[in-house]
Amino acid sequence: MIPLSVPNFEGNEEKYVLDAVSQGWVSTGGAYVDKLEKDIAEYVSTPGAVACQSGTAALHLALIECGVTQEDMVIVPALTFIAAVNPVMYIHAEPVFMDCDDSLCMDPAKLQSFCEEECMLVSGQLIHKHTKKQVKAVIIVHVFGNMAEMEELLSIARAYHLKVIEDATEALGTYYEEGIYEGHMAGTLGDYGAFSFNGNKIITTGGGGMLVSHDKETLRHIKYLSTQAKDDPHFYIHNEVGYNYRMTNVQAAIGVAQMEELEEFIRRKNKNFALYESLLENTETGKLLPFRSGIRSNKWFYSFILNKDICKKEIREYIGLLQEKGIQTRPIWGLIHEQKPYRGCVCYQIEKAKYYSERIINLPCSTNLGEDEIKTAAEKLKECLSF
Ligand SMILES: *Cc1c(COP(=O)(O)O)cnc(C)c1O
Description:
By secondary structure, the chain is α/β, with parallel strands linked by helices. The protein is 35% helix and 17% strand. Strand 6 (134-141), helix 6 (150-159) and strand 7 form a beta-alpha-beta unit. Helix 1 (13-23) packs antiparallel against helix 8, helix 2 (31-44) runs parallel beside helix 8 and helix 8 (249-280) packs across helix 11. The longest helix has 32 residues, at 249-280. Residues 54-56, 80-81, 83-84, 141, 167, 169-170, 196, 198, 209 line the site of pyridoxal-5'-phosphate. Pyridoxal-5'-phosphate is lined by residues 54-56, 80-81, 83-84, 141, 167, 169-170, 196, 198, 209.
């Protein structure tokens, strides 16, 4: 069986975990938490980072820090993992679903026309004409390690006074190689950036996340919220409602080891992607979705887009056939605005999200895949699709 995406522990993971355990620092305090926060902040070039229990928790804290309340709306993608959107519901705000472009990330043209046509600026606040609610923030997801079109998205957000939360949970290590943001990492371009270390992400801590920002005071407040909002550590004074969103030292120990390997993982992801590309370039059944040019992508997940003129079966049938042949693949996500808790929410011209959701199969992409396994996966894919 060739799995879709499994973690890779070739480095110091065991050593650091044993170290944390033997020192008795297994819970939410400990040197590995501090070290991982420092490592991430250095890697992405922010003045700090706050370790969290998950990427979802990091996004939740970012929304709270933006001041989003139940009176507000937040623009979110229709095509993404649902964890990017659920935190909007945690604070009882209202999501507005936006379409993607051909990078699978948010379409700047549609964001622009939504702000221009469906909303109006009233004393510095963007008000949605129909609901009269303030649109306070936008969550931009860097899908599969690609970079969203940040130059345009950020200038629109600035023009319409929107806070920008980057969901970079899939894009640790992706950065611009040219343009005005040359050298800038995904997650550090907007007001907040969230990362995830879930088991299938580019690096893992078993489960965990990180929130970054360029503002030290913001980071301090986020840390405070994540640790039960303790105003006095000895006398239990709490002046705000806090959360237990801390990462444990055992998780962070794994993370510190994974950070040592991150660049090697990205190198392998890129190499394997190039190999798939060459193996699949002459098939009429579809093609690999390229990553945006002008960026160094972490190439976290590989997307094969079916040519529906030739592959007329439902995606789930192909995935089943591949499973029988020992190749684990998956469909892209179900559209979020079509999921039960989100039906009836405001949606804006969703077309491409639907198109891609019906056509994409994600191929095995673990960093420990050998050349032979990739050749086998590509071979079986061709077989199943022409069936
Ligand atoms: C993985 C992921 C998350 C959530 O991260 P967790 O650490 O699993 O909570 C959020 N958004 C997207 C797009 C993701 O892929």
